[in-house]
Design a protein that fits this description.
Elements: H1 20-24, H2 31-44, H3 47-64, E1 68-69, H4 73-79, E2 102-106, E3 112-113, E4 118-122, H5 123-129, H6 134-156
Parallel strand pairs: 1-3
Antiparallel strand pairs: 2-4
Helix pairs in contact: 3-4
The structure holds zinc ion (2 copies).
One zinc ion (ZN) binds near residues 86, 89, 124 and 125.
Length: about 160
């Protein structure tokens, strides 16, 4: 039996404009119409609302992974800054390009997420830091710095 997108009336074909998951979750519109719908939704939210949604998603993910989450969403909203705590570069949390975005990061390792233990980093710094604590990250950077300094001549001027 053929099914049709309730929004644009195109035939729903699994693997083309419809997925197994769409069937499972009882979706009634094709992928294209679903995407347009969520783009419309995200335009309706202002920066503060999107920030709260982002924080709330991140906290629930941490809870699911077994972390103890302290504080309210308001407390986390107050920690927000769009300047990277490490390199100082400003970022847009919702940039289309994920390399230009930033994210909330835990300062020290451990099983607790609290407003006192978070900072906001640009994507590049966060990628480099990975799951290190700030302290471990600093040690890592210092190691790179001193190694590069020793080798800088041959690395910067490989032919000289
Ligand atoms: Zn459609
Ligand atoms: Zn940075």
């Amino acid at each position: 039996m053929k099914s049709y997108c309730r929004t644009c009336n195109d035939e729903l074909i699994i693997g083309v404009n419809f997925t197994e998951a769409d069937v499972k979750y009882g979706k009634v519109s094709c992928r294209k119409c679903q995407n347009e719908y969520s783009r419309g939704l995200s335009k309706k939210f202002n920066h503060d609302q999107k920030l709260r949604r982002k924080i709330s998603t991140s906290l629930s993910e941490h809870r699911l992974r077994g972390y103890e989450v302290k504080g309210s969403i308001d407390d986390y909203v107050k920690t927000f800054t769009n300047q990277c705590a490490f390199c100082g570069e400003p970022f847009d949390l919702f940039d289309k390009n994920r390399y230009k975005r930033g994210s909330m990061d835990r300062i020290s390792n451990g099983n607790i997420v609290s407003p006192q233990n978070v900072q906001w980093l640009c994507h590049k710094c966060n990628l480099t830091k990975q799951d290190r604590s700030n302290e471990e990250f600093l040690e890592y950077i210092e190691k790179i710095y001193s190694e590069l300094k020793k080798k800088s001549k041959s690395l910067i001027f490989p032919d000289s």
